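Entry
Fold in C-alpha cell form

___
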Amino acid sequence: MNNSKVHMVFYLWKRQFIESLLKKQTICGYLLGGVLMMVFSVQYLNYAGNRSIQCLEPMIVTMINPIASLLLFIGLILILPDPPFVNNRSAMMFYRSTRKTWMCGMLCYMASHIILYYAFLLTVSMVFTMSHSYTGNIWSRALIRMVSVEKMAAISKYGLFVPNQSVFEYFSPQGAAISIYVLLVLCGVLLVGISCLISLRYNAVIGNLIIMLLQLLGVSVCRQYIRVIPFKMIPFCMSNLEILSIRNIPPEYAGIYFVILNIIVVFFMFAMIKRMDLHVIVSEKNE
C-alpha cells in the first residue's frame, strides 16, 4: 500500500471517527458502559468495606462475570450499530479511492472504537475506586477471602459473581488485566466483523442480533459445560479468564486463535465488498 493510499485510509478513519463521536448513539454507548462499570465497581467496593483493593480488581472481577461482560457489550453495539458504516459520504469515497482502501479505513475506525471503549471502562473502574485501592501487583486480602472463605456471603449479600480460585492462582493482577483487555478487544473486533459480514448480506439489525446470540452462547451457556466442550467449539468465550484457567489454556493461545479468526473474517469482508453494490446499500439506508 503506497503513501497516497495510507493517507486516504487515515483520512477515512479520521472523518468517520470524529463524526461518530458527535452522535447521540455513540455518547449513549459510552455512558451506558461507564454507568454499568460504576455499578459493578460499587458492588465490589461494598463487599470490600474498609479493606483496600488492588486498583485493577473491579475491572477483572466484572469482566470475568459472563452476565456483566454481556451487558457491557451492549454499549459497544450502541457505539458501532450499523456496520459496514456506509453513509452518504461513502458513495463519494468510492470514486476517490478503491473499495479496498475504503474498507481498510472502516476496519481502522471499528478497531479504534473497540480499543477506546474497553480502555474507557478500565479507566472508569480505576478512577471510581481510586480512594480505596493500591497499585501493587498483588491480589488484595478482600479478593482472596472472597474466593476462598466468603464466597457464599459475597454472592448472597452483595450480589457478586465469584470467579474460580484458579484464576487468581494462575494470573497476577497486571497479567490478568492485560490478558482480559487484549482478548476483549480481539473478541470485539471478531464479533463486529461478523456483524459487518451479515449486514452486507442482510442488514445491521440481524447482524447485531446474531453477534449478541454468539456472545450469549459463548460466555453464558458454554460456561456450564466448560470441561466437556472442545476448544474449537467455544471461540467466543476465549476472552473469559476463568474459562482459560480452568481449561489450562494460556491467554497467548486464545489471542492467536482470535487473530486467525479475525484474518478469516477480514478476508471474507474484502471478498464480499468487491461484489456488493454499495450504492444500493446507501440508498436503502436513506429510505
About this structure: The chain has one domain: 3-286. The two ends are 36 Å apart (CA to CA). The chain has a mean pLDDT of 81. The chain has 14 helices and two strands.
